[in-house]
Amino acid sequence: MLDNNFLFFDGAMGTMLQQSGLKTGELPEELNISNPEIIYNIHKKYVNAGVDIITANTFGANRLKFKDSAHTAEEIITAGVRIAKQSIEGLNNKYVALDIGPIGTLLSPLGTLSFDEAYDIFKEQILAGVKAGADIILFETMTDIYELKAAILAAKENTHLPIFSTMSFQDNGRTFTGTDVATFVSVVEGLGVDVLGVNCSLGPNALQPIVDALIKYSSTPIMVQANAGLPKYKNGISYYDIDPDEYSHEINTMAKKGVAILGGCCGTTPEYISSIINSLDGLKPVAISKKHYTSTSSSSKTVFIGDEVKIIGERINPTGKKMLKEALRDNDLDYVIREAIAQQDTGSDILDVNVGLPDIDEKEMMIKIVTELQGVISLPLQIDSSNSDVIEAAVRIYNGKPIINSVNGKKESMDAILPIVKKYGTLVVALTLDEEGIPKTAEKRLAIASNIINTAKEYGIAEENILIDPLVLTASAEQAAVMETLKAIPLIKNKYNVKIVLGTSNVSFGLPNRKLLNTTYLSIALGYGLDAPITDSTNEALMGVIKSFKVIANQDIDSKDYIEAYSNVTTESTRINSNGDLKEIIIRGLKDEATKASKELLNQYTPLDLVNEFMIPALDIVGEKYEKQEIFLPQLIRSAETSKLVFEKIKEMTLKDGSEVIDSNKILLATVKGDIHDIGKNIVKLILENYGYKIFDLGKDVDIDQILETVQKENISLVGLSALMTTTVKNMELTIKALKATSPQTKIMVGGAVLTPDYASKIGADYYSKDARGAVDIAREVFSK
Length: 785
Prior knowledge:
The chain has 785 residues and is an alpha/beta fold. The radius of gyration is 28 Å and the shape is globular.
């Protein structure tokens, strides 16, 4: 389709509909049936501007958003694709993209929608679009990489059409849920999309750093559909601040860097697209170079293996661990979470997760543990099991690009594991053993590694996605073979572009002073080229070897990490006090411990003191970490949910004994009339509730009169209004005017992707908040007066 030429997408649909007189609050996709001519005419204007791909008017056509509509999502999609195809009828090399946006509800554990439910919704949209004759599947404006994974899998498993996937990034370089560009690329390239990129988000000038990062990490063709700058507001009319000439100049710069698929998003029109096409006349795309990163990702962090030593934490494995075995049998998830936190705090880069016990349901427990861990820590996970069904179940619902541990040289193992690696785009640990067992020599290990690597290539798995484990034998039983493991490392790395992992502690089994043997062997292995030891990062001696090696090997530049680690050594443990430090419990998101700790503390503190001395300081710390990007939305929500459990226990106790009640100031939240998006509002609600405010949540698509009546009836001092679509900001302005007229003492804060502080001020709002943390600061200011 690219054929060494640029591909041009169309621009905004919503902007064109506004210019055509779309009524505020009307669902744009319903026009496919109620007024198809207006949609056809917009498509035709873009066709006449010279675009190659027309985007069907199906962005929000899913069953959740259309549950109250007279038409099904399938009917809307069928009509939308038909109209788009009519607009290119008789023209060569023109295509129709089925446009699929976010569902509008966060996936669990951030929200209530399960991964499987999201998959089913996307599958319905895709099947309808394919049946209607779409040429391309376009996922755009995605802000949750987990939701995008469900969408891509639904497409890969139900169609053979090309998949184009874009996400929207904020000016901090991350999506709303915390995904950075490297992670986005790592995950979606692994899943096998045909094109990836960025859309909406920001103006083209502000998107240049995002584009640079895409080019740095991506081996896949890149697309960009920027906004026409920032939204402005003047004389009751909204507009964007970048004109077609400036827009095309910035897009031209991106094209010369390596972006090959170009178009526009909010605020762009056929004039913008025509300007882009004219500016690139006669030019050819810059070829995207093949990258060879070995990377694994969580939803918010990508770890690159190879440039410096990375540590794979080994402690979540019940082998030889009595307490972990008991915790798994007792469903004590907080114990597992504490083990994960301890490893994260002591320097692990990746965590191995093995829950294999004969007397539990391994698949159920693995899914449960993986889900819980991803709400608490930001490290990528290594899924460790001998059961391929368990592995596939876990990597399917994993939010990111995991490592599979493991495959080996047996044909049965490769037949079971390598298809999973390919399908989900994971890394895989390959053990150098086969039907004859663990070999005694380095050369035989190389031969087994070669067999696995070559077989993986037949599945389309690149060398950089393979981690070879040459397997350590015990010095007590196989002393002559111990060094053969290490000799195999350079043999393998000199022949293949693979990285080496190794569980070094097995060398000392059955011998005294295991610590000495383990540290000595680890230091030798690092010298031979070990990239990622699977070890215990809470072991100071082992970590000391790694920190020292990174200085000597020039991996720790200027010895910064080493100096930080040892210039002010303390003996303070990173583990949480067994008695339960409530602040730490909230910060860490230890739900199971929260209720117990708060119950005990209520014997020592009044409810109000518990809120002021524990809950609020903890939430403040969480908020600060979120602002500094030390944690991201999953961890923020986890802490808020943990705090909510504490607050519920406090309310339960106060009602039971008749003591003081934590009675909060009142805040009303609503998404304005015509807007059916409420993810941001719901997060704001969750955070504010934990600060003790009483929230009146009126939901989404709320009538102005309902807001006015509730404010007056409940004597509400602060109202929070949300709008995500440019077409509904007018209703936000009307709501603000009505509130000012009827309840002038009430303060109004607003938020949403289409708003800026300047825009908020011009429509009459008292405050603008970019996120939930900002809403807390505003509430404090309002209620302190």
